[in-house]
Design brief:
The protein is an alpha+beta fold. It has one domain. It is built from two helices and two strands.
């Protein structure tokens, strides 16, 4: 979390998912949902996926993509 003030004039709340790729028991995601409701803005979940990192493999990418459908 940043100490910077929340921009209440934004058009959405961004949740950048980098771990805890689940919808249940994900406290960061729940915080983002609560903030989006508080600000009456849509929640955008970003799941960045690159193909050129050291341990890139189809199995991991399939895991991430299947989790996005959740």
């Amino acid at each position: 979390m940043s100490a910077a003030p929340v921009r209440t004039d934004g058009t959405f709340v961004l949740y950048w998912m980098v771990s805890s790729r689940r919808t249940r028991f994900n406290f960061g995601l729940q915080h983002a949902i609560d903030r989006a409701r508080e600000l009456t803005r849509p929640l955008v979940v970003l799941e960045a996926l690159r193909c050129d990192y050291l341990w890139s493999c189809e199995r991991f990418h399939r895991f991430v993509i299947d989790g996005m459908a959740n």
